[in-house]
Design a protein that fits this description.
The protein is α+β, with helices and mostly antiparallel strands and 160 residues long. The protein contains five helices and five strands.
């Protein structure tokens, strides 16, 4: 009985090794101008991001990131993927953002920038994946329900 089990396990072992899918191979994807493109999303904001080698300027909707994102926390959010990949100051970033507020737009830009970096340099994928920059944060505002003032808030209860 034990011998049959051992033969069955050996067969299973050889089958998994031979039939295992290989890891996906990521390749560099750039356009004719040498730019990598990606779309990032967060809440209701959508960011279309292009990166190319340069001096490190970040342009958002035709304006500098220092002007568009006045709060230092938002500028820090945007630069996180570049710092994690140790590419700060090596890429020019150009993007258009629509929808949402400033916080959602900064998150969308961070997400799009991370994906664009992996498309320009596929070997950065593991570093950015570990930092959680490639995962889309799917949390959105809950819809308002009828008979309630907000999504979950109820009117004050009164016994009399």
């Amino acid at each position: 009985m034990a011998e049959q089990q051992k033969q069955g396990l050996e067969g299973l072992k050889s089958m998994t090794v031979a039939g295992a899918p290989s890891a996906p191979v990521y390749e560099k994807r750039v356009d004719a101008q040498g730019r990598a493109y990606a779309t990032g999303k967060r809440k209701n904001a959508v960011a279309r991001v292009w990166i190319k080698p340069g001096k490190g300027s970040i342009t958002v909707n035709g304006r500098s990131s220092q002007i568009y994102f006045a709060r230092p926390v938002l500028r820090m959010m945007i630069s996180q993927p570049l710092i994690a990949a140790q590419r700060d100051g090596q890429f020019d970033v150009w993007c258009t953002i629509t929808g949402g507020g400033l916080s959602g737009q900064a998150g969308a830009l961070r997400h799009g920038l991370s994906i664009a970096l992996t498309r320009f340099e596929p070997e950065l994928r593991s570093v950015l994946k570990k930092g959680g920059f490639l995962t889309r944060d799917s949390r959105v505002v809950e819809r308002k329900k009828y008979g309630r003032p907000k999504a979950r808030r109820r009117f004050q209860f009164s016994k009399r």
